[in-house]
Amino acid sequence: MSDKAHVKTDKILDELISDIDEFFSPDSNRFDEFNSVAKKINLYSFSAEGIEQFTQTQRLKQAKKDDYYDILIALIVAFLEESALKSLDEISERVKDVYKLNYKEFSDSIPEIDIPKFKIEKIKKEFSESVKKRIETAIKQGRLPSDILLDIKREIRKHKNIFLRISRTLVTQYENMARYEAMNFVGVKHKRWITQRDKRVRDSHKRLDGETRPIDDRFSNGLLYPGDPDGDVSERANCRCFIQAVKNAAL
User: Fold this and answer.
1) Are residues 132 and 202 in the same domain?
2) Which residues face 190 on adjacent strands?
3) Is the pLDDT score of 1 beyond 50?
4) Which of 47, 160, 202, 240 has the greatest number of CB atoms lying within 10 Å of its CB?
5) Domain end: 187, 207, 231, which one?
6) Shortest CA distance to 127 belongs to which of 76, 64, 165?
7) Residue 167 in contact with residue 24, Cβ under 8 Å?
8) The whole model's pTM is what?
C-alpha cells in the first residue's frame, strides 16, 4: 500500500492544529477587555502598598465587593467555551475526512462512522472551576492587573493544549481504525506497526516499530492498532504511529 494517505493525514492534522491555535488566540480587543475589567476589580482601588498589607483572605474579600471579579471570570470562561465549540466542530469534520481518506486506500465501500460526543456541560464546568481557581489564586497573592493578564494567557494556553492533544489522539485513532477495518473488509491477513522514526517517538513505540501481527491479533503493547480506544491512554495520547498492510509476512 502507498502511504500517500498517511502523508495527507499528517497535512490534515497540521491544518487542524493551526485552526485550534487560532481559535484559542484572543485578539487585542479581547485582551484589552480582560485588562480593562481586571483593573476595575475593587481590590485595585487600593495602592500597591495597601494591597500588600492585606492578608490573602482580605484581598479576596475586597475583590468580591463589586461585580468586576465575577465579570472577569465570566468573560474568560465565555471565550474558552467559544474556542472549545469551534475546535470540537473542526475536530469532528477533520476526523471524518481522515477516516474516509484511509479507508479508501483499500475500498470505496466506506461505512458511516460515529464521532465521539463530547460532554459540553462538563467541559464548561471544568472551564469555570479552572478559571475561578486561577484568578482567585492571583488575587490572594496580590498580583496586579498586568500580572493577572499573564495568568489569563497561561490559562488559555493550558486549555488550548488539551484540545491539541485531543486532536492528535483522535486523528491517529481514526486513521488507523479506518485502515484496520478496511484491511479486514478486503481480507488483508497481516498488519505492521510503523512509527514516525524521529526523536519524538516514545520508547515503548520505538520497540514496536516494524512489529508484524496477524490482522486480528494485538500488538505487544495490547493495542489492535495505534490509537486503539480500548488501549491504555499512555499508549494512545499524542501517538503519531500508523499501521500498514503486509503481504507474505514471515512471523
Assistant:
1) no
2) 214, 246
3) no
4) 240
5) 187
6) 76
7) no
8) 0.91
Question: pLDDT tens digits for 121-166?
Answer: 889 899 999 999 999 999 999 999 999 999 999 999 999 999 999 9
Asked if residue 216 and residue 128 are part of one domain, the reply reads no
For residue 120, pLDDT beyond 80: yes
Domain containing 210 equals 188-251
C-alpha cell at 205: 513505540
Cell triple for 170: 483522535
153-170 b/e with 16+ CB inside 10 Å = b?
eebbeebbeebbebbbbb
What value does the mean pLDDT of the chain take?
A: 94
Task: Look at the chain and count its residues.
Answer: 251
Spatial CB neighbours of 236, under 8 Å, sequence gap ≥ 6: 169, 172, 173, 223, 226, 227, 228, 229
Please count the structural domains in the chain: 2
Closest-CA residue to 103 (of 186, 11, 28): 186
